[in-house]
Input
Amino acid sequence: MAVKKYQTHHGMHDLLPDEIATWQKLESIIHDVADRHHFKEIRTPILEPTELIARGIGQLTDIVSKEMFSFERGEDQYVLRPEGTAPVARAYVQHSLHQRGGSQKLFYIGPFFRAERPQKGRQRQFHQFGAELIGSPDPMADIEIISFMMDIYNEIGLTDTSLKLNSVGNPESRKQYKEALQDYFRPHLNEMSEISQNRFETNPMRILDSKEKEDQPIIENAPKIADYLTPESQAHFDKVQRYLDQLGIPYELDSRLVRGLDYYTETAFELISDQIGSQDALGGGGRYDLLIEEVGGPSTPAVGFACGIERLLLAAEAANLQLGTSAPLDVYIVTRGEKAREWALNNLSTFRSKRLRTTMNFDGKSMKAQMKDADRNAARYCVIVGDDELETDRFTLRDMSSSEEQPYTFEDLIHTVANSK
Ligand code: AMP
Output
């Protein structure tokens, strides 16, 4: 009976060795840019309490209402984290990071999970990098977050993006705006999509997010939040725009940008690429002055962003950007006979201690097959070893790009290869 072959779940992917160099390069760029901006890495658990995520993101969001991977164990309810901000907010409160004085500048990279319908640029396990600046209400903090995000894309060379900007105001602006939206949508409700009808009572701002065709002409003429901002919110938003202008960071105002999550206040932004298909948001973020209190901490203003790594890589591919290449193998030891194999096993470390990437054949194949294997692994050199070589201390070094072969004593050979890097 044939044994069943297992596959990853739909929307969850293995990262195979050929892709890893790209991921590692991207991660090292993120670490590098973070270092220059003085953001410190934080790593939180993959599993969080379900209640934290429900409170932190909002019961009415798609994420909480239908996209969570959650389970119970004993008394505890776990959820695979769907995003990074609520976990970082929890860590901030749990470890009383506010007592350390000043703002905290934190960043993270890692896997996240949402039970969405998979398609291009949308997976059930995906990866994000993101940052949070917690403790400052100043629009300058918004700018520090946006410029950190933009610098990562600039460093990669992904400049063909557009930054959309809006303000969702403070709770007072939003209250008035929500009422104005409801007054506007009410007479049109019958013509609108079911999703929008459902959002009408609970979260009318999210109707602006609708992708449904029948909603578009109605949304087109909906009131704009810009007309409902309180003077404080307007002043905050004006400063954000002025600072962006001063820094030469281009942006477009987008009054429909409301973002899916409930804890956002004031500045909202999204980074878009028109090169990656319908899932065109590379990342987004904004201010969330209400979240820390919502998850049990002191009232603390904060601003952050989160970006998808898979979508960034799709955009990099579309722009023909090569992010990383795997480092070449320096030495492949080709052996003839069992004694030579044992010698190779004992001497791998001699090469490796000189920081040379070195391997040998582990399946006892013929010399021809070993040479082929060396070629396949793009080795720079082969060292050819048999009984004669061991007796006479004359090893053949084959330069794989020129196919030239030269005899060396072992000591000279190591020296030559180590100096050729
Ligand atoms: P969000 O937390 O929904 O604001 O998402 C921030 C970014 O993460 C998005 O702009 C995407 O780039 C990425 N992202 C969100 N959900 C997914 C998903 N299911 N698959 C791949 N990337 C995602």
In short: The mean pLDDT is 94. The chain has 15 helices and 16 strands. Residues 17-37 form the longest helix (21 residues).
